[in-house]
Design goal:
Number of helices: 1
Strand content: under 5%
Order of helices and strands: H
Largest sheet: none
Helix content: 55-70%
Distance between the termini: 49 Å
Shape: rod-shaped
Length: about 45
């Protein structure tokens, strides 16, 4: 069962952790794309 972040229980929420890791991976990919776009625009 997924809990809201303010009820975070590190022993219980391996599913929540996995979801957060997926989201961070997505954010990381977007940041890389944005950085690449900025470099291209700068040159």
């Amino acid at each position: 069962m997924l809990c809201p972040p303010f009820q975070f229980n590190p022993y219980d929420d391996t599913l929540l952790l996995a979801e957060l890791e997926d989201q961070f991976d997505d954010i990381e990919d977007r940041l890389i794309l944005i950085a690449a776009a900025l470099i291209i625009i700068d040159t």
